[in-house]
Amino acid sequence: MPHPLPSLDALRVFEAAARHLSFTQAADELHVTQAAVSQRIRSLEESLGVPLFRRLNRALLLSDDGQALYQPVRDALDQMADAVESLHAGDATGVLTVTTMDSFAATWLVPRLKRFRERHREIDVRISTSDEVIDLTREDVDMAVRYGRGDWPQLDVVRLMTEEVFPVCSPALVERGPPLEKPADLARHTLIHDSLHENWRMWLLAAGAPQVDATRGPGYYLSNLVVQAAVAGEGVALGRSVLVADELASGRLVKPFDVSLPVEFAYYVVSPRATKDRPKIKAFREWLLQEAGAP
């Protein structure tokens, strides 16, 4: 049977004493008393069955066995320190994997990522898109931007943006007509649908135009495809404020009516509680909040 290894603490004390050839200086470095160092060395010698130091009147020297042990112990401690330092460095640099929905990534996140890269060139952001809610504690993913009520137990959850819905269309569609002066005019236009809960029927009721047939028109599963269809002039889409913000700002889409419908869900930045303060995750979360104008 192999002999049991001494404790890491005992080896650290031995390495410091051997390097300084002084129990007093080793005690100062380790922030313990000289008596504690002496006792730990004596216990180590007893467990190994050999003397590690030659104790002279005014000097402390390594024994032959101490000299044989010193360099391997120092190399091992240095390797462990380097490994721990690499882990901490990995928290601040390297790959950061973020999962989010396809539509949010395509219309809001990816167009802004250049600004994060310019600020944090040491971090390589990898975007994984999926509408499935994955287990962040099990999958090889650092954090997520999710859409929902924010009720995800065991995770650190920070609200990023709320949302509202309203009709949007291309300016060319408004110019060529038919007119879009009041919500009832939508009866003469193609309505574009997505698959989320807030739908045309709800908006038309809120806008005072329940007579408009809310069931007709093409539909798309992904909201970013709804935005693209509206930009292409296919009809009037029920736009989601977060996803159409850039298109409205650029003039590629217009908002013909002032009526907006609040949305039950919001966007949240989530990460495992155990890793939420890692430098990479914290930097990306703070950048997202700044981009969204969130407090």
- What is the strand arrangement across the widest sheet? 4-3-5-11-6
Looking at CATH, the homologous superfamily of the largest domain is Periplasmic binding protein-like II
What fraction of the residues are assigned to beta strands by DSSP? 15-25%
The stretches of 5 or more residues where confidence is low (pLDDT under 50) are none
Distance between the termini: 61 Å
Helix-strand pattern, N to C? HHHEEHEHHEEEEHEHHEHEEH
> What do we call the CATH topology of the largest domain?
D-Maltodextrin-Binding Protein, domain 2
Percent helix, as a range, is 40-55%
**What Rg, in angstroms, do the CA atoms define?**
32 Å
Mean pLDDT: 91
Structural class call reads alpha/beta
Biggest β-sheet strands, sense, barrel: 5 strands, mixed
